[in-house]
Amino acid sequence: MRTFRNLRNLCFVRILLIAIIFSTLFFSLPMGNRLTEGASKMLAGWSFVVDPGHGGSDSGAVGPTGFQEKVVNLNVALKLRDMLESEGAMVYMTRTTDTYVSIRDRYTLANNLGVDRFISVHHNAYSDPNANYTVTLISTAAGDVTYDLAIKVQNELLWELGLPSANPPVWRVDYVGVLNHTNMPAILTEASFISNAAEEQRLKDPAYNYREAEAIFRGVLHHCGGPRAYFIKPEDGAMLFGPAELKLSVLNESQVQQVNYYVDGQPEGTETSSPYVHLMDTTKYADGTHFLKGEVVYKDGFRLEANTSISIANSASRKWYFAEGTTRSGFEEWVTIINPNDVNMNATVTYCFNEGQPLIKQYYVDNNSRTTINVNGEVGAGKDVAIQITTPYPVVAERPMYVNTDSVNGGHTVLGVNKPSNTWFFAEGFTGEGFEEWLCLYNPHDYDISVNADYLMEDNSNNLSRIIYVPRNTRVTQKVNEVVGPGRGVSIKLTTINPSHTLVAERTINFNYAGKWRGVSAAMGAIASATNWYFAEGCTRRNFEEWLCIQNPNDTTANVVVTYYSPSGDSIVKNITVAARTRRTIFVNSQAPNMDVSIVLASDRPVVAERPIYFNYGNGWALGGDVGRGSNALSPVWYFSEGCNTSSFEEFICILSPQSESTWAKLVFYLPGGDIAKEELTLPPHSRVTVTVKYMIYAWGNVSVCVLAGKPVMVERPIYFKYQKYSGGSNYCGYFPMTE
Q1: Contact in structure between 73 and 124 (CB atoms under 8 Å)
Q2: Phi first, then psi: what are they for 537, rounded to 5°?
C-alpha cells in the first residue's frame, strides 16, 4: 500500500506538471492569438529517432508462451511515434514493420539526420521467471542532458506501470551499440520483463502498450519542456567566412508567416518562403564571435526563437606561429590542427631552424576533423625548430610536447598565435634552485630584428635591459638564468627596436619544484597588457599549489581587485597593489583554500597575469606543473585542437561564467573517424563548471572540442597524462577568432 500511495501522489504531481506546461504555453500567447491547428505545439521544432528494438530474424527475448519481444517493441514504438507527432515533433523510425535492421544502421540513421534525441524501446528477460522491474539505460559516457531524459522517462514508466524500479533506476552501460555511437542524447527503455508470465499477458494487450508509450511520451514532454526551434545551418562550432547559409528548423510550414534572422540583436534578413534559408554575407561583420538569433513567426502570432553563438573568420585564423620546439633526444613534439568547417584543405607548414634553410611541407586537413603531425618524424632528430602554419580557410592549431631527460619529466601544450607582434609580455619567470627559464624568439621574416628585453624583478630592484639579435627566418634561444642571475622572480617585456618589425616569443621553464615535482611548462607571451584577466582553471585542494603572477610594466602603481569564484557560486574578493615596473606573486592556496577556483582580475592600470600550478595528480599518477596564460577577454565561443581520451590521459574542460545570471553551454566534440558528438549543460551565475571529457563522449582517441555559450565566458583545458615514459600535465585556454 505504501508503494501504491506514493505512486498516486506521483500521479498528481505529473498531471499537475503537464497542466502547468500546457497552461504556461497557452497563456503566454497574446489574447486573440491562441494556437491554431497545425501551428506550433509542445514539441514543435524537436526531432526524434524512435527505435523499436530487434525485428525480422532477430526476435529479441521470448515470453513463456512464445510471444516475441520484437512485436511488443514495435507496437509501443508506433504508438509513441504518433504521440510525438501529434505535438509537432519530427519523428523518424528505424523500422515500421517486422524487418531486420542492424545496430550500425540504427545509430547511423540518427547521426545522419542529426536529430535531437534517440529513444530505443525494449523489453527485458531473465532466467528467474518472477523477475519484473523497470530500468532505463544510457551510455557510460552520457552527460547530464541524457540522464535528465532517462530519469524523467523512467519515473513516468514507474508510475504508469506500477512496477518496481531497478536500483539505481538509470543504468550507465558500455555494451549497447545504439547508446555508445549516437551523437545526440540517447536512451533505451526496458519497461518490463516479457519473461514474466503475467507481464507477457499484459504486453499482448494494445491498451497496455498504449499506456507504456504514453508514459515515455510524458517523460519526453517533461524533458523537452515545450516548443523549440534550432539552427540547422550554420552547424555548431563552424568558423564562418564569405557567404554563409542560415537555416532554422521549421515545422508546420503551412502556418508560418516568415522567418527572421538577427546578428548581435540587429536584423540580418527575413525569409517568407520555404525552406526559409537566408544567405548571410559574413564580410559585413568583424572577425570574431557574435550572437545569432532566428525567429519563426506563425500566422496566428505565435513565435519560436532559436539562439546560438557563432564565430566569423574572413581574415583571422589562417596563420599560426610557434616559437618553441625541439626534436632533441628525450623530446617528442606534435602539432594538432582542427578544421571545424565543411571544406577540405591543404595546410602549408614551414619548419624554421636555428640555422640553415627552412623545411616546407603540405598536409591534407579533412573537414570537421583534426589532423595530427609528428614533428620528430617530419624534421628528423636533434633539431630546435619553430613552426609557421598557413591555410586557405580558418583552422586552430596547438603544439603538444613531451619531455623525458635526466632532469625533466613532463610536457606542455601551447596554442599558437595568429600573427607576430612588436611587443611581448611574460608575467611568470623564476631562476631559483631547480628552475631553468628559457626565452625562444622566432623571426619569420626576411629581415633581421633587434629586440629590447626588459627584465622586471619581483623585488623591484636590479631591473635589467638587454638587446637580443634575431636573424631573419631563424629562431634564437636565451637562457634567462644566465642574464638575471640565480634566485630571481622575473617578468619580461620585449619590444622590437624598429616598431615595424615583428616576431613571435615563447617562454619555457624546466623545474624541480620544492624537490618533489619535476616537469616543464611553456607559454606564449601576451602581445599587450590589459585591465582585465580571466582564468577558468585553478585548484587549491590537497596536492595542488597554485600561484598568480601579476606584471606591472607601467611607471605607476597598479591597484588590482582579484575575485576567486568557486563551483558553488561563492566568491572571495581581495584588493592588492603591484608596484611600478615590477611583478607580484600571490599564493592562491592562502587566498581561496581547498577548492576548485577560477579567477577574475581587474586593474586600474594595464597589467599582465599568468597562473602557475604545481600538482600531484591521482596520488602519484601524474606529477608536475603548468602555467596558464589566461585571457584578457571573454567569448561565447572557444576552440581546442588538442585533446585525448585514453587510459593515458585525463582531460577536463573548465568554464568560468562571471555573468550575473545562468546561461547555456554546448560542447561539440570532434572525434576520431570524423564523428561529432554534442552535449549541453547549464552554467550557473558567478561560477566555474568542470567537465570530465571521458564522461561526455564514448570515443577512444584524439579529441578536439568547441565550446559554445549563450553569454561570454572563459574556457581552459587541463590535461593530466601518464603517456609512455612521460608523466605530468598541461593546460591552456582556448582560442576564438579576433580582428587582425
Answers
A1: no
A2: -85, 155
Burial of 739 (0-12, 13-18, 19+ CB in 10 A): exposed
Helix or strand or coil: residue 302? coil
330 Cβ partners below 8 Å, 6+ apart? 403, 404, 405, 408
Angle between helices 69-86 and 206-224 (to 10 degrees): 50
Neighbouring CB atoms inside 10 A of 214's CB total 16
User: CA-CA distance, 519 to 413, in Å (whole number)?
Assistant: 13
88 backbone dihedrals φ, ψ, rounded to 5°: 90, 0
**Residue 184 neighbours by CB distance under 10 Å:** 21
Rg (CA), the chain: 29
What CA–CA distance (Å, rounded) separates 643 from 718?
9
What does the block give as the cell for 46? 524537436
Calpha distance 149→137 (Å, rounded): 11
Domains and CATH numbers, the chain: 39-224 (3.40.630.40), 231-312 (2.60.40.10), 319-733 (no CATH)
User: 264-268, 335-339, 567-571: which range is least confident on average?
Assistant: 567-571
- Residue 86, pLDDT > 50, answer yes
Please give the angle made by the CA atoms of 108, 114 and 118, to the nearest 5 degrees.
70
DSSP state of 164: P
Share the mean pLDDT of the chain.
91
d(CA 410, CA 717): 17
The string of DSSP letters for 122-134 reads: EEE--SSTT---E
What is d(CA 545, CA 730) in angstroms, rounded to the nearest whole number?
15
* Phi, psi of 103, deg, nearest 5: -60, -45
Q: What is the pLDDT of residues 214-265, one digit of tens each?
A: 999 999 998 988 777 888 899 999 999 999 999 988 767 778 899 999 999 9
Instruction: Summarize the confidence of residues 5-11 as an average pLDDT.
Output: 28
What Å distances lie between residue 284 and 240, 268, 313, CA to CA? 12, 10, 12
Active-site residue (options: 69, 160, 190, 428):
190
Residue 190 annotated in active site: yes
Cα separations in angstroms, 550 against 322, 485, 558, 608: 24, 21, 10, 6
- List the grid coordinates of 400: 603538444
Cell of 492: 619580461
Torsional class of 199: left (φ above 0), alpha (ψ -120 to 50), beta (otherwise): alpha
Residue 630 identity: G
Strands in 299-376 per DSSP E: 303-312, 319-322, 331-339, 345-353, 359-365, 369-374
540's grid cell: 587549491
CA distance 312 to 288: 5
The stretch 609-637 carries a mean pLDDT of 95
Q: Can you say whether the dihedral through the CA atoms of 560, 566, 571, 572 is positive or negative? A: negative
Residue 42 has pLDDT above 90, yes or no: no
pLDDT at residue 341 greater than cutoff 90:
yes
Determine which helix (DSSP H) or strand (DSSP E) holds 534, and give its type and residue range: strand 530-535
Q: Cell numbers at residue 692, please? A: 570530465
